[in-house]
C-alpha cells in the first residue's frame, strides 16, 4: 500500500511538473513573440528612415551635380567673371590654371583649365554637418588617365571651392 501511495504521489508530481513546464514555455513563447514584433516594428521604422535619407541625398546630388557641371562648363569657356558673380567663388587664373582659395587644412594644386572639357563621372558624395563634397572622375580617354576632382559646398548648398 505504501508503494501505491508513493507511485500515485510521483504520478501527481510528474503531472504538476509537466503542467508547470507548459505554462512556462507558453510564457516564454509569448515574450519572444512580443520581442520579435517590437524588432519588426523598429526594423520597419529604420527602413523608412533610410529610404527618406536616400531620397534626400538623391535630390541634393542632383542639385550639386548640376552646379558642378555648370562650373566646369564655365571654366572650359573661360567665363571666370560669371563664376565669381554667380557662385561667389574666390580664385585666381594664371598660366592656364585656375586656383581656388581653399581652407588652410585643404591642400590643392591649381587645376589645369584644359582638363575642364573632359567627361565627368560621379565618384562619391560626402555629406557632413557643415559641408558637402562631391567627387568626380575626369577621364581622358586618349591618354587613358583618370583624375579625381572635388567640389565643396557649404551646409546651405552654396558652392565654395574645387580641389584636386
Helical content class: 40-55%
Shape designation: rod-shaped
Q: What share of residues are in beta strands?
A: 25-35%
Total strands = 7
Order of the strands making up the biggest sheet: 4-5-6-7
Radius of gyration: 33 Å
Q: With helices defined by DSSP (H or I, 4 residues minimum), what is the helix count? A: 2
What sequence of helices (H) and strands (E) makes up the elements?
HHEEEEEEE
Which segments are poorly predicted (pLDDT under 50) over 5 or more consecutive residues?
none
Mean pLDDT, rounded to whole units? Answer: 86
> Could you give the distance between the termini?
98 Å
Class by SSE composition: alpha+beta
* Largest sheet composition: 4 strands, antiparallel
Amino acid at each position: 500500500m505504501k508503494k501505491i501511495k508513493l507511485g500515485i504521489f510521483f504520478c501527481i508530481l510528474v503531472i504538476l511538473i509537466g503542467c508547470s513546464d507548459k505554462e512556462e514555455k507558453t510564457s516564454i513563447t509569448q515574450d519572444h513573440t512580443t520581442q520579435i514584433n517590437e524588432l519588426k516594428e523598429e526594423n520597419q521604422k529604420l527602413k523608412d528612415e533610410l529610404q527618406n535619407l536616400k531620397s534626400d541625398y538623391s535630390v541634393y546630388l542632383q542639385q550639386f551635380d548640376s552646379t558642378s557641371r555648370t562650373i566646369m562648363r564655365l571654366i572650359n569657356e573661360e567665363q571666370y567673371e560669371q563664376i565669381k558673380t554667380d557662385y561667389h567663388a574666390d580664385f585666381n587664373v594664371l598660366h592656364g590654371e585656375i586656383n581656388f582659395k581653399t581652407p588652410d587644412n585643404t591642400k590643392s594644386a591649381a587645376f589645369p583649365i584644359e582638363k575642364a572639357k573632359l567627361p565627368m563621372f560621379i565618384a562619391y558624395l560626402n555629406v557632413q554637418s557643415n559641408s558637402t563634397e562631391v567627387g568626380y572622375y575626369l577621364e581622358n580617354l586618349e591618354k587613358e588617365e583618370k583624375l579625381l576632382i572635388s567640389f565643396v559646398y557649404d551646409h546651405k548648398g552654396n558652392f565654395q571651392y574645387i580641389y584636386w
